[in-house]
């Protein structure tokens, strides 16, 4: 299989190396707006380099999009119009209009689009989903989701990210829907920006919290912060009438117990998302290759990504207007955009 690969930045370098090592990927053509960077990465992983146009001209069997967020929607649309299956790092776009336009192009072309929500491929999340779906926890009544970065991103990243809720908590929103099989009915969200001035300058927050009510009455708290000096912390706690289960609780979880007999902090806490989810990222791309071959169903379609974004949009509206927001209100906005 020939894969056209777009993006030679940090995430692109990791994904390109993963694809180059996969069985069945016989040819990898790497393109980037910075052609010198594309050539350097291609040389490192044993691939060919081309311009972005050259990648499409190479007639690949599929494309992987790992470019800057601002270019995702355009490239997803271009791949669809070329009849190519595509994998795209999330988000497809940071706004509803851009996302819906790109998904329309995919639908019209009838092509496959897999969006990168790597938690769906993590061993802990997979085990938790199986337990929930098998009824091992009994009736699920509470979920607590945590996403904490050890340090803020560069200031220039914030205006391009869509904000903390769309950038970070959207992973939790997708995971909650995927774990439970239920939809979010209503949200209430708030945030604070007590850290660096550049958060306030960007109209963003460095810490956020959301209360979600699912359509079966399950309550979900989802929190995120850019300031967790103890390390990278991603956990999801699922509480049912019969039992509780935690994803992300292991010897590297970056917290210590205050109890005299409790565990201390880890000697080597998780440093970041690469460290924590490396195996999941590899599994995600291997699954994409299998999906292109028709061996498995698409594990995370564009519609799934849109549904997670709709929850994020509801949370942003709630944060701005200090009120609960029902998802039906956001769905009406989608109809207006459509």
UniProtKB/TrEMBL annotation:
<dbReference type="GO" id="GO:0016491">
    <property type="term" value="F:oxidoreductase activity"/>
</dbReference>
<comment type="similarity">
    <text>Belongs to the Gfo/Idh/MocA family.</text>
</comment>
<dbReference type="Pfam" id="PF01408">
    <property type="entry name" value="GFO_IDH_MocA"/>
</dbReference>
<protein>
    <submittedName>
        <fullName>Gfo/Idh/MocA family oxidoreductase</fullName>
    </submittedName>
</protein>
<dbReference type="InterPro" id="IPR000683">
    <property type="entry name" value="Gfo/Idh/MocA-like_OxRdtase_N"/>
</dbReference>
<dbReference type="InterPro" id="IPR055170">
    <property type="entry name" value="GFO_IDH_MocA-like_dom"/>
</dbReference>
<feature type="domain" description="Gfo/Idh/MocA-like oxidoreductase N-terminal">
    <location>
        <begin position="1"/>
        <end position="117"/>
    </location>
</feature>
<dbReference type="GO" id="GO:0000166">
    <property type="term" value="F:nucleotide binding"/>
</dbReference>
<keyword id="KW-0560">Oxidoreductase</keyword>
<feature type="domain" description="GFO/IDH/MocA-like oxidoreductase">
    <location>
        <begin position="125"/>
        <end position="245"/>
    </location>
</feature>
<dbReference type="Pfam" id="PF22725">
    <property type="entry name" value="GFO_IDH_MocA_C3"/>
</dbReference>
<dbReference type="InterPro" id="IPR036291">
    <property type="entry name" value="NAD(P)-bd_dom_sf"/>
</dbReference>
